[in-house]
Each structure stands twice: as structure tokens, then as C-alpha cells.
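User: Hey, quick favor. My workstation is busy. Could you predict this chain's structure for me?
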Amino acid sequence: MILHELISYDILRMIWWLLLGVLLIAFAVSDGFDLGVGTLLPFVAKTDTERRVAINTIGPVWEGNQVWLILGGGAIFAAWPPLYAVSFSGFYLAMFAILLALILRPVAFKYRSKRESARWRGNWDIALFIGGFVPSLIFGVAVGNVLQGVPFRFDPADMRIFYEGSFFGLLNPYALLCGLLSVAMLVQHGASWLVLKASGTVADRARSYGSLAALAVIVLFALGGIFLALGVNGYTITSAINTTGPSNPLFKTATHEGSWLANYGTHPWMIIAPILGFVGAAAAFLALRARWEVATLLFSKVSILGIISTVGLSMFPFILPSSLDPKSSLTVWDASSSHSTLFTMLVVAAIFLPIIFAYTAWVYKVLWGKVDEKAIKDKSGHAY
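Assistant: No problem, here it is.
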């Protein structure tokens, strides 16, 4: 028996759907607090020293945290080619805005302290804010559009992809609501990180803004669920499902008359995900008020895990539904790479993911400890 046939095609598809979720969650819980700190920078730090305190809490780790974004993009490219093709072409301007903002961030880190000029540093601080806020917002807007369906279709003759939407069409009310939820979620996470890693006034202000953000997460997550139940139709496969069939979305039929909440009736255990989203945010709020530092960050991670998992579980088996032609929608069962490709990638992931996790854990252990104003003024090892 050929080795890769030991794991069936349908199981491999499920594994890579789960791994994609793991990579997205890992990005949100690691680089998410970097984005949150950038968004909070103008509010928690008023003086240059305070801003340097905030920046130096993430300065040593932000580059490593972005590995998860690269891994997520690579996984989509290799494991789900049609998803990569549709999302990176349909969301081209949105992706460009994210990349531009993410490019500003490393440049700001490297150049901010090259000159003593207050105006120079202030401009780079604005760049750090843009590099945190813009991706946080657009990631959420993208998820909101995915839940509503994306205007694309496949040509049956040659499987060419046609995207018939516009950039401003992405900025609809529900998508903006999801964008605000994303910002609140990552601001909560950034504040939790600052409470753990910073000291003094920066940590105190972060505690206040983080508390507000945690309450906003609860309210916006609830509103998102209500609109999802009452105003946003889900998608349903209406034909027989072939879990081991070829990756051709047009081999099925689907309708836009379903509900994204139907999975919770079929699989009641899935309700754990939204519960974690609410409980994590509520616990993070209480931990912030109680001045529990490590617990606050852990609870914030639980909230992120619950919110992102809620989206994935609600949509399963859909990955990217089509509002133009529901049968063109991409699902776990008809949008993956070949059996051999998925198996080869799984072997590679099994080797390298544990190494990445181990290295990341080691880095955080080495860099454990708070950043305070005294160390910044003494220039004792803080580069930013």
C-alpha cells in the first residue's frame, strides 16, 4: 500500500481545514497583540518615554509573530488553491491596504529612534497606529463579507474565475460590524499584553482601555450573532456530498436560503465556540479590573479562540460561499489540492510546526519580564 493512502482523502481535507483554523488562530493570538498595541499606542502612551515602553514590549517578538500570517497564506496557497485565487483577486485592494499597513510597521520600528526629533518620532508613531488599526479592521471586514457571500463565479467551460464585486461594496454594514468586532478583540488582546509586559502609567491606561474593549467585544459579538440569525442568510448544499470526489465546486448544487446557525442544531457541541467567545471576553474584563496579569492574557486568548472558531464551525463545510452562483461556493470537499499534495504537506507540517512552537516558547521564556521607564531611560538593552 502506498504510504499516503493510509490517510483517506476526506480525512486529509478535514485535517487541513483544522490546520488552517489553527494557523489563523495562532496568528490572531500572537501577532494580534502586536496589532492591538499599535492601535492603542496614541491612547496609552503620551510621552516619548511611554511610547518607547509600549513599543519595546512588542519590539523583540513582532517579527516572529508574523510567521503565522505567512504560514496561513502559504497553507491557503498550497492546500486550497481556488480559495487563494478567489480571495486574493477579489479582495485585491483590501489585501493591498493590509500589506501597505504591515509594511509601514517594520519601517516604523527600525527608523523611529534614528533621530531625536519629536516630529520625526511622532510621524512614525502614526505609522505604527496605522499598521495596527488598518489590518485589524480589514481582517474583520473580510470575514463579514465571507459570511454574507462573495460575488464570484466559475465559468463551467474552463473553470475561469470571475469576480464581480468592488472594493467599496465590501464596506457594507454587517462587514463593518465584524470589522469593529475585530478591532475591539485585538485591542483587548493588546491591552492584556501591555498589562503583562509594561509597568506604570502605560499599564494603567491599558487596563482602562482594555476593559472598555472587552465590553465592546461582548456587545459586538452578540450583535453579530443576532444579525447572523435574523438578517444574513447562510448557505446549504442541496445535492449529495462526495467527500472524496474531485475538487470541482460545480459538481454540487447549493442554495443561499439556509442559516449559518443550522450546524448548532445538528451538532450541539459546537455551541462551545461562541460560549468561549463570550466567557473569555467577560473573564478578561474581570481579570483586568482585578489586576491579574497572566490570567488576563490567557482569557483574551480564549475569547479569540472562541470567536474565530465560531465563524469556522458556523460555515462548515463552506470555506468561501458565492453570492452570485451558490454552486460555485468553495467547500472543504471540493476546493482542496490533490490527495498526494495534502499528504506531503501534512508530513512537512508535522515536522516543522512543533519546531516553530518550541522556538516560539523558548523566545518568550528568554524575553520574559516587564519593560519599565527606568530601563528605557538608561537604554539598558531596549533598542526601540
